[in-house]
Write a structure and sequence with these properties.
single chain, 16 strands, Rossmann fold, globular, about 450 residues, five-stranded parallel beta sheet, 2 domains, alpha/beta
């Protein structure tokens, strides 16, 4: 063996030196593949004065040979299978499906663990994808596919070490691939590091937090003003929220969170990120002011005041419809728990604006007589093991006179905490909004 990196940080510094041409450019963003790619990417971002984020990809390890990738998955439903590896190992489709389900669960967990704000818009950016090494390149290949869907100006793959054949393959798949070494005797990424200890979730969060605090030539948020903290006026109060509208968005979805929650809800953030990846804008905001939230923590009354919550949601609909960047975009409403009732009531009162409604584990029954006035296509998503809520949704379905559908997610309870269930919610919601919000009415 001709060389070894001391650790991922040192490998990152050596890699950064080969990317010097991108230093100081405001359009550059560095995306690290967690977990091992983040320490490497941190050094690259530091040297280039570029913002750092994670890009979530999970390798599909072969049974009994986890280092060998059958393929990989990424946020947004992207999946790549290495057909030659699958065929050579004779892995059945049933086994592959089990592996995908397991890795999807872990991907969702990391999405909730690492994301503290919406992912940056990648359109027209120079995206540098970084991992600690490339063996088959399956994880990186899926990352490239997923990033391409967001219309970057340039995609650069960077890793300290790569198998020569993988390096050559990527030369024909991306705008540029940069490696420190491509040794002929490559057998695995770990052999080229003295210290190849597993990177922990805590270390990933720490590195991302440190990167956010440092000045950079590029913006750590989207260069567009359509990815920003906002204040939504609602009568005498200002409600805090986050508005993100990607370029070319086909619509905007307003989130009404459930009882006792806020616009920082990790579940709603997870779904919102999936919607943005599907080309939809999102507005997550608090239905209650800070003072009201404090009161509600003591009494739990306001979270069930559907009339108040609906009025706040209607204010957000009117406010968003009046903004230049959203004026021509169809609006959808996504409600969870009691927020679902507020969403349906708001849709009934603003039929000319609300084009579609989705409820996640919601209480649509609390919308009462307004259910019969809803004209927007409505999708109710309920966990199969959430028996009380399922029955209430079935009752609400009978009262709705609009286009409607009830989707039951098998094995899910009220909060959709079970493996893969929240991902199913995100997929169902994205498909419903994409289809129904683009229909002329």
């Amino acid at each position: 063996m001709s060389f070894q990196f001391q650790n991922r940080a040192q490998a990152g510094r050596l890699l950064a030196a080969k990317l010097e041409a991108y230093a100081g450019r405001a359009d550059v963003i560095v995306l690290g593949l967690p977990r091992g790619g983040v320490p490497v990417a941190r050094e690259v971002a530091r040297r280039l004065q570029a913002p750092l984020e994670v890009f979530l990809v999970r390798k599909l390890g072969a049974p009994g040979r986890e280092e060998l990738a059958l393929g990989a998955i990424a946020s947004g439903g992207f999946c790549f299978l290495n057909d030659s590896v699958v065929a050579s190992l004779r892995v059945s489709r049933q086994v592959i499906d089990r592996i995908i389900a397991r890795e999807q669960t872990e991907l969702e967990r990391r999405e909730l663990a690492y994301r503290t704000r919406p992912a940056t818009e990648l359109r027209d950016r120079v995206v540098i994808l970084v991992d600690d090494g490339l063996a088959t390149g399956a994880s990186m290949r899926v990352a490239v596919m997923a990033v391409r869907q967001r219309h970057p100006a340039r995609v650069v793959v960077a890793a300290p070490v790569a198998a020569p054949e993988t390096f050559q393959e990527f030369q024909g798949e991306v705008d540029e691939i940069v490696c420190v070494e491509t040794p002929d005797n490559f057998r695995g990424v770990g052999q080229w590091y003295e210290d190849f200890e597993q990177t922990s979730d805590d270390e990933v969060r720490r590195l991302l937090a440190e990167a956010d605090k440092l000045p950079s030539a590029a913006l750590t948020e989207s260069p567009s003003p359509l990815d920003a903290d906002v204040q939504v006026p609602a009568g005498s109060v200002l409600l805090q929220g986050r508005l993100a509208i990607p370029d070319g968005a086909s619509g905007v979805v307003i989130f009404a969170h459930g009882s006792g929650s806020s616009h920082h809800s990790p579940r709603n953030r997870f779904v919102a990120d999936a919607l943005r990846q599907a080309g939809l804008g999102t507005l997550l905001f608090d239905l209650l002011s800070p003072a009201e939230e404090s009161m509600d923590r003591e009494t739990a009354r306001l979270r069930f005041d559907i009339a108040l919550l609906a009025e706040r949601l209607i204010c957000s609909v009117d406010w968003l419809a009046g903004r230049t960047e959203a004026a021509k975009l169809p609006l959808g409403l996504f409600g969870a728990s009691t927020g679902a009732a507020a969403a349906l009531l708001a849709a009934a009162r603003r039929p000319e604006l609300a084009r579609a409604v989705v409820s996640r584990g919601g209480r649509p029954d609390l919308a009462g007589a307004a259910l019969g006035d809803v004209s927007a296509p409505t999708l109710l998503i309920v966990g199969g093991d959430d028996t009380p809520t399922l029955e209430l949704n079935r009752q609400a379905m009978r009262r709705l006179r609009c286009e409607k559908r009830l989707e039951i997610v098998p094995g899910a309870t009220h909060l959709f905490e079970e493996p893969g269930t929240l991902g199913q919610v995100a997929r169902l919601a994205a498909e419903w909004f994409q289809e129904k919000m683009n229909v002329e009415r």
